[in-house]
Amino acid sequence: MKRFAAVMAAVCIGVANTSAVFTVKAEPDYTDTEYWEDKCTGQVASSDREACNAYAEYVNSQRSSLESRLDEIESQRAAIKADLETYAAQITEYQSQIDGLQTQINGKQEEINAKQAEIDAKQVEINNKQIEIDNKQKEIDAKQAEIDETEAEVDSLKSKVKNRMSNAQPSMRFNKYLDILLGVTSFEDFLRVITGINAIAKYDQTTMEKLVGLIDRLNLQKQELQTVKAEMVEVRQQMEAIRTEMEIARNELQAQQNELVARQEDVIVLQAQVQIVQDAAVEKEAEMRAASAQIAADISAITARMAALAAAGELEDIPTVSSSSWYFPVPGSYRSAGTWAYSSGYEHLGYDFAAGVGTPIYAVGSGVVLSSANGCSTYGGLGNMCGYQFGGAYGGGNQVHYLVVVNGSLYGVAAYHMMLGSPIASGTIISAGTQIGNVGSSGNSSGPHCHIEIMYLGDGSNFANYAQTWNGDLAFGTGWQGSNRKCDAGYGAPCRIRPETVFGY
């Protein structure tokens, strides 16, 4: 479950970063996990329950799809370990596929970003159109208020005219002409009608002109109102067109996001495949090393070299010229894997200094080279166990094991995966900073680096005796994976120390 949770987190993070900015959600965007986790966690509003239930179904479907693919890969673990070199040879192909998918993902992310920018721009247009519509509505309301006010004034004046004319000529049969007069809608109509009515000349001319003016203003106001209404209809149509365009863009974005998630899932599956091969390689190397307590070849020759050095007085001099501090072994490198475990959780007993092939490797202190294994190709690969046939550790490739004194304490040091032809010879007296080899990728290695292990062996005054009586154990009595003595776990000499404690992180 931890593995799956981490995988789902990776997918969720990758998708949340691209979809959290949705403004319009015609259909729920369940890949926006940050939005939905916030909405559907804790007390869920009744209006959101249906959507949250649908989101839960979506998460379960995604989990089921990805987990089944990962479970299928996990079921191959035993077969991978049994035929490690065949599967390891596919790592390059897997990595090529991962790189290709990553390129697709990057391109898809650019498309998503562009599409989101388009959607955001459309939303700005819609917002601006809504402001325009709101302003038009205010204008319409103001025009209607003007019309209502003018109509009230016209009605009042018409009623006044009618009453005054009726009172002025009670005996005239004038009703049909009055009705005609009050029904006109323009000054021209009014003049045409009024010429046929002699009695109108006696009426207050000022009042009549005011009525005609009001009627003309009322007609103008109505025309202006119709114009504004027509403009608002046009703006609404424009906004709906923009909404349609944005909906199309949103659907395109959703499709792009779905494709992005699919590509991310493919990467996760391939990475899981690579991880299992790497884990199998680590397990196999650990098992093979643990199966042989003493794997240094020709120990008698090494013992003879140490005896000759002792006879010459060179071993006894080492404690007196011991380094006062640790010398950094691979300048310009970075830590690609640390101690005591890989990121996958498998035990890792050393510090991996990643650097380009050929980068010099230096002695961390002053001492003597006990064992040197050389003969593996500079480039090995996962599952490549080269190293033991040349007197070294299984999978360590070209390697050097040496004894040093630092700050008065005795240490055994192992340096693995060197370039072919670079390991310094057994029996060589070294000082802190002496070059002992070059970075390679020999043995069980997925890339150029130097794997370094450090074992604390007690007081430095025992240097000469230890060198002459060393039994060829490349773990210096500290054990291998699964059964080893770690100083920070409370063990005394011999025990393994974390290189990070002296070289940093």
Outline the fold blueprint:
Blueprint: H1 2-19, H2 33-40, H3 49-74, H4 77-82, H5 84-88, H6 91-168, H7 175-183, H8 187-194, H9 205-290, H10 299-311, H11 314-317, E1 334-337, E2 340-341, E3 347-348, E4 351-354, E5 360-362, E6 366-373, E7 398-406, E8 409-418, E9 429-430, E10 435-438, E11 449-459, H12 463-469, E12 479-480, E13 483-484, E14 495-497, H13 500-503
Antiparallel strand pairs: 1-4, 2-3, 4-11, 5-10, 6-7, 6-9, 7-8, 8-11, 11-14, 12-13
Helix pairs in contact: 1-9, 3-9, 6-9, 10-12
Can you put this structure into words, describing what you see?
The protein is α+β, with helices and mostly antiparallel strands and about 500 residues long. The chain has two domains: about 1-135 and about 245-280, no CATH class; about 295-505, Distorted Sandwich (Glucose Permease (Domain IIA)). About 55% of the residues lie in helices and about 15% in strands. The protein has 13 helices and 14 strands. The protein has helices at about 1-20, 35-40, 50-75, 75-80, 85-90, 90-170, 175-185, 185-195, 205-290, 300-310, 315, 465-470, 500-505; strands at about 335, 340, 345-350, 350-355, 360, 365-375, 400-405, 410-420, 430, 435-440, 450-460, 480, 485, 495. The strands form four sheets. Strands 1, 4, 6, 7, 8, 9, 11 and 14 form an eight-stranded antiparallel β-sheet that branches. A two-stranded antiparallel ribbon has the order 2-3. Strands 5-10 form a two-stranded antiparallel ribbon. A hairpin with a 2-residue loop joins strand 7 (about 400-405) and strand 8. Helix 1 runs antiparallel to helix 9 and helix 3 packs parallel to helix 9 (about 205-290). It is rod-shaped, with a radius of gyration of 45 Å.
